[in-house]
Design goal:
Length: 425
């Protein structure tokens, strides 16, 4: 019989057809699965997230009831328009909902009281249920001042005090400042921030963030201090230092406020206070400027270590208004110069920082006939270096210079640093 070849060929092609069909089925299934995943991912991204992002500033109380979160995501435009309040343009008040981390509203806050010892500023009526921002009339009164009146005033600071008996914590909320003077002569504005210290221990020091180019900054930052018993609160005082940030030099001091807590009752809730900012109670150097030096006498080796740290408020000697200061140190024994040293020259700086150390050998066992002279000079290549100011430390010196020298003699092996006013050289 002849072999049947056609049927054998058909049987051999069946596995190949099944393999090709399986491959197409697998490709189709994977494509369908990938499409479904993409659809779910896009649908998930369009949904409202179940949480809220909360930005917590450094030093701000992190308890949920004090965190201001943004408005609820996905809110209707109509509800937003109806919920918005009419707020003055200059008040910088944000209409935010106060919710905790779970999205629940906290308990209503206690009634805000005015402190009985407020300064003689304009009386603002803070009623229960109203926001803690200044009224439009007060803003207009501060903005309508003439430039001469603004120079004489340093503005006002609004803050509140509270004591949390459950957490045994003292809470300070720095709300805003109004009518600050302009520290930048070009832009006629300031970059204010506030440093706060609890006196007299000075263990608790905090500061707010810097707000750019404003004379009426609204900080609204809360600082919580733990471990302060309520019985000790009346023995404390708050020191507020208002400054203006300067990127290229030392920050400018606008003013300060010292608030004694004695007589302030915090048992009934939060106390709102308005205080006028005063000029800093420190004599600014005029004339020749100031010099910060540190000295240490080593009685065992009969050496005197002198550290020239920095100077400030040096006058303009050059006609261009720029000075290149350096410090020359002369050591005298029995009115005779026995050694001399000098620092490096600092280019174009009225507040130079040296941080240079020098060691002098003392020819005698005590410092009775020894004195140290500091000469701050202006380096000039074209002519003779001009003396900016002079400082002499010794037993015959008067004022702070004599006191500094006595402390060095009484406390050997101790580095003692002090600021000194420079005299005419």
């Amino acid at each position: 019989m002849a072999p049947i070849t056609s049927s054998e060929v058909g049987i051999d092609e069946i596995p190949a057809v099944i393999g090709i069909a399986s491959a197409f089925g697998l490709i189709f299934t994977m494509s369908l699965f990938a499409w479904i995943c993409c659809q779910r991912k896009s649908a998930k991204s369009n949904k409202t997230p179940p949480y809220k992002f909360v930005h917590v500033l450094k030093g701000v109380d992190i308890y949920p009831e004090n965190i201001n979160s943004k408005k609820k995501f996905g809110a209707d435009e109509k509800t937003e328009k109806t919920s918005k309040h009419i707020v003055p343009k200059n008040s910088l008040h944000l209409d935010l909902e106060k919710r905790d981390l779970n999205g629940n509203f906290p308990k209503p806050q206690t009634k805000v009281r005015s402190s009985p010892d407020l300064d003689s500023v304009s009386q603002h009526q803070f009623l229960e249920g109203q926001t803690d921002c200044l009224s439009p009339e007060s803003l207009q009164s501060t903005n309508s001042l003439s430039p001469l009146e603004r120079k004489e005033q340093f503005g006002t600071l609004i803050f509140s005090l509270e004591y949390n008996f459950e957490k045994k914590a003292f809470v300070v909320n720095i709300k805003e400042a109004c009518g600050l003077p302009a520290m930048d002569d070009q832009s006629m504005t300031s970059d204010p921030y506030i440093k706060m210290t609890i006196l007299p221990d000075k263990k608790h020091k905090v500061k707010t963030r810097v707000l750019r180019k404003t004379l009426d900054p609204a900080f609204d930052e809360t600082f919580t201090f733990y471990g302060i018993p309520y019985s000790q609160v009346e023995d404390l005082a708050l020191h507020f230092m208002v400054l203006s940030f300067d990127r290229f030099s030392r920050d400018d001091i606008i003013g300060e406020i010292v608030v004694p807590l004695q007589g302030i009752d915090l048992t009934n809730g939060r106390v709102l206070m308005i205080k006028e900012i005063n000029k800093r109670n420190v004599k600014k150097s005029v004339g020749r400027g100031e010099l910060l030096v540190s000295l240490c006498y080593q009685s065992t080796t009969n050496t005197l270590t002198v550290v020239v740290l920095k100077a400030r408020h040096l006058p303009k000697i050059d006609s261009s208004g720029l000075s290149e200061p350096y410090v020359k140190i002369n050591l005298y024994h029995a009115k005779k110069r026995i050694s001399k040293k000098k620092t490096h020259v600092k280019k174009s700086s009225p507040n130079p920082v040296f941080n240079e150390l020098f060691v002098f050998d003392i020819p005698c066992e005590d410092l009775r006939d020894v004195s140290v002279e500091f000469l701050v000079l202006d380096s000039d290549r074209m002519s003779r270096n001009e003396v900016i100011g002079q400082l002499v430390l010794g037993a015959q010196a008067e004022g702070t210079a004599g006191e500094h020298w006595n402390e060095i003699c009484e406390h050997p092996r101790r580095q003692i640093a002090k600021w000194h006013m420079l005299c005419d050289g």
